[in-house]
Amino acid sequence: MKLPRAVKRLARIARGGLGMAIGMAYYPVAWFGWFRARDPLAAAVSELLLVGFHGASSASPSARLLARQVRRGQVGAVFFVHQNVGSIAQLKGLLQLFGGGAGTPLLAIDHEGGVVQRLTEAHGFTRVPSAREVAAGLSPDEACELYAQAGRELATLGFNLNLGPVLDVDEPGNPAIGVFGRAYGTDPECIARYAQAFVDGFASAGILCAAKHFPGHGRAVSDSHDGVADISATWTEAELEPFARAVASPHPPPLMMTGHLRLDSMAPDGCPATLSPALVTGLLRERLGYRGVVVTDDLDMGAISRIMGRRQAVVQALAAGSDLLMVKNLFRYDPLMPQRAVGWVRRAIARGELSEEQVLQAAQRVRALRAGPGVRPAVDATRP
Q1: Catalytic annotation on 297?
Q2: How far is CA 5 from the centre of its chain?
Q3: Mean pLDDT, to the nearest integer, of 258-278?
Q4: Listed residue (184, 198, 202) closest to 130, CA to CA
Q5: What is the pLDDT of residues 52-111, one digit of tens each?
Q6: Backbone angles phi, psi at 272, to 5 degrees
Q7: Which of 4, 39, 157, 197 counts the most CB atoms within 10 A of its CB?
Q8: For residue 225, what pLDDT is reported?
């Protein structure tokens, strides 16, 4: 029996609260940074972590600890989900917390438009229509200006990374993409044109973009929030075309997000794209020639957490060729997750599951992204 959305939301809140309570037992060790490694490999692993937090204000113990870990150089990137978005004053307080660190931290949020827009008119932000609405009502040039305005608003607040655009095809019955109008259409050229407008518009305001969900979530019949979405029976090369066009453009997306998508024709071992060398290294890197930063979708989503623990997910994602590992860290809150990740990687290298060169190269790509002209330092969020 399918549970109502409200019941699911209450269950998530309860699980998050329980996880926070259990995790707090390790909080003092994490706060003072006891037993953390400080060698070059540990520094490299820190660059690969895109981490979430509990709470919607700067008083949140989880947010304060994560900000401290950013300043210590244990975490290089932070992402905000809807649970972290309260009032505009609370957001400014949070962004002020995260506004320092070892270099410029990546501060990410979902700002696609439509239902996937965390910062709304209630926060003083311009409403951004869904991708489907944009493609139906605006030219690519008009869309670019709309996205530039949205980018300026994000940059003023202090964000520098937008987890969009969507390059998936539009299938109205798709439970994660189509039912919310998150895709620009079915024609690969049309999708690529509007996605480029998205990337260029936000880039003009200093906002990086992460195109998603490689290799194509649009025709999946299930939602990867709940389990691995098997696209083997529905996926065609036409769904790869928008990604190929984006990669080949003069200004490709600086980040590409992989989805928790099973595609047996390309990865016969059944691994979802997030964890698949065949799809990340073979298809995206080698066949399409992508040279930017590959970011995973959230490794705490049901698609991954129901089949393996965080340690295995982190190691397999890196072995697949990913650079930036998204871990929401809410339902199984672990204050020590950043330093545990160093241990996981170190042991995987010792066992031959990873090479140190892989880790260092991934870190170098992320460092170049953070240091590049597309990333503006976080602003002082206390300014009017």
Answers
A1: yes
A2: 23
A3: 96
A4: 184
A5: 999 999 999 999 999 999 999 999 999 999 999 999 999 999 999 997 545 679 999 999
A6: -65, 155
A7: 197
A8: 74
Report DSSP letters for 25-69, one per residue. GGHHHHHHTTT---SHHHHHHHHTEEE--S-SSTT-HHHHHHHHH
How high is the pLDDT of residue 77? Answer: 96
Residues 6+ positions from 32 with CB-CB distance below 8 Å: none
- Domains for the chain: give ranges and CATH numbers: 5-371 (3.20.20.300)
Q: Where do runs of H (alpha helix) occur along the chain?
A: 5-23, 27-32, 40-47, 61-71, 88-97, 131-137, 140-157, 188-203, 241-248, 277, 302-305, 310-320, 337-351, 356-371
| Preceding peptide of 215 cis, ω within 30° | yes
Residue 361 to residues 97, 331, 365: CA-CA distances in angstroms?
A: 29, 31, 6
Threshold 0.70, pTM exceeds? yes
Q: What is the mean pLDDT of residues 103-122?
A: 93
Tell me the pLDDT tens digit for each residue of 199-244: 999 999 999 999 999 999 988 887 777 778 999 999 999 999 999 9
Given a cut of 70, whether residue 4 has pLDDT beyond it is no
**Residue 126: exposure state from Cβ atoms within 10 A (0-12, 13-18, ≥19):** middle
* Cβ(344)–Cβ(314) below 8 Å: yes
DSSP assignment of 315-332, as one string? HHHHHHT--BEEE--STT
User: Which amino acid appears at position 29 of this protein?
Assistant: V
CA distances from 188 to 42, 96, 146, 198 (A): 41, 40, 21, 15
Query: Apex CA 200: angle with CA 208 and CA 371, to 5°?
Result: 30
The active-site residue, picked from 225, 226, 264, 334, is: 225
Which of 223, 297, 298, 323 is flagged as catalytic? Answer: 297
Residue 377, pLDDT above cutoff 60? no
* Calpha distance 329→58 (Å, rounded): 17
